[in-house]
Amino acid sequence: MTESLPSTIAVGLPSWEGELVFGSPHWLWLLFPLCALFFLNRRAGAPGVVLHPTVRFIADLLEKPGMLAGRLGPVLLTLAALFLTLALARPQLRNEHRTQDVSGVDIMIACDLSGSMTENRDMLVEQQTPAGRRRLLINRLHAAKLVIDQFVERRPNDRIGLIAFAGKTKTCCPLTLDHNIVRRIVNGFNADYLQSDGTAVGSAIAAAASRLESCKDSKSRIIILVTDGASNAGSLPPIEAAKAAAALGIRIYTIAIGTENNQISQYTANVDFFDEKTLKEIARITGGEHYRARNSRLLDSAFKTIDKLEKTEVKQRSIVYHEQLFIYPLGLAAALLLFGLALPLVLPKPAP
C-alpha cells in the first residue's frame, strides 16, 4: 500500500505544523548566563575621561565622539550567542502520520419482516424514565431494529449489507461502509415493507450468500439470520441453502426471536413456530452459532456475542518525522556575528 508522507517533508521553509521540540534541550541552560551577561553589559562603567580644571567650563560644549560601534557591538554579539545556543538545542517540528490497515468482516444481515414480527408484542425491554425504570412489551421487529442498529454502530470497519425477507426476499442494501445508510434502512423496516406473507428462510440465505460470494478480500464472511418462524415459503430449502453457503466459506449465525406465546392472526394461523432444529442445523453446517432470544436482553446478548466472535483486525502504524529547524537560528547567529565584527570597521572608534 502506498503511503503518503506528511506535508512538512517538502524542502523549503517549514510549514509550522506539528509539535515544536528540542533534540538537545540541555543547551538551553546557557540562555540564563547569556541573558545576565547582556544586562550587565548595559550598565554604565567608569568615565573614560580625565577632568582638568582649565577645560571644565567648556566640557558641555564639546561634541561627544560617535560610539555606535561600541554600543551595538556587544549587543549583536550577545544576540548571536543566544541564537547559537538555540541552534545547539536543535529545534525540531515533530509530525506524526498514522496509517491503518483493516482486515474487516463482510456481514449480511437477513431480517425477517413477516407479519408475525409486528403482530407479537412479547419482547420485554426496560426503559429509564423520570419516574424510574419501567418494563415495556414491544413487538419483535421493533426489538430487532434496535439491536441491529446498535450492532452496526459497533462495527465501523466492516462492510455490512441488508436482506429483508418474508414470503419473498429483497436486497435492501449491498455491502457498504456507509453505515448511516444501513441504519436508516433498518429504522425504516415495517410490516408493509415487503407486503408478502410467509417466511422464506432458504431464499434469504441464498440472497445473502450471493452478495458475499464475490468478496474474496475480506477476513471472513458471515450471515446473521433473524427470524421468528419456520421456513414456509420459497423454492429453496434452508438446509440446501446452508450447504451452498458453507461451500463458499460463509458462516451463518441464526437467531430465533420471540416467546412461544404467539398471537394467532392472518399471518400466523398455519405456521409452525420456531423450527429451532433447522436453525441449529444451518448454524452447524456453516460453522456458526444458534441463539434463542426470548426478550430484548437475550437478543442484544446474541448480537454482542457475535460481535466478540467475529473480530475485525485493525493494525495502526505511526510514521514520526522530525523536521530540523536549527539552520534558522544558526543562520541568524552567523549574520549577527558578522555584522557585529564588521561594524567597528565601518564605524571605527575615535582616537583618544
Helices and strands, in order, run as EHHEEHEEHEEHHEHEHEHEH
What quaternary form is this? single chain
Q: Whole-number radius of gyration? A: 40 Å
Average pLDDT, all residues? 76
Strand order of the largest sheet: 7-6-3-8-9-10
- How large a portion of the residues is in β-strands, by DSSP E? 15-25%
Sequence stretches where pLDDT stays below 50 over 5 or more residues: 1-16, 263-272
Fraction of residues in H or I helices: 25-40%
Largest sheet: 6 strands, mixed
Structural class assignment: alpha/beta
Tell me, what's the shape?
Answer: elongated
* Annotation, overall tally of beta strands: 11
What do these coordinates show?
- By secondary structure, the protein is α/β, with parallel strands linked by helices.
- Helices cover 36% and strands 24% of the residues.
- It has ten helices and eleven strands.
- The strands form three sheets. Strands 7-6-3-8-9-10 form a six-stranded mixed sheet, with helices on both faces. Strands 1-2-11 form a three-stranded antiparallel sheet.
- Strand 8, helix 7 (238-247) and strand 9 (250-257) form a beta-alpha-beta unit.
- The longest helix has 21 residues, at 68-88.
- It is elongated.
- It starts with 18 loop residues before the first strand and ends in a 6-residue tail after the last helix.
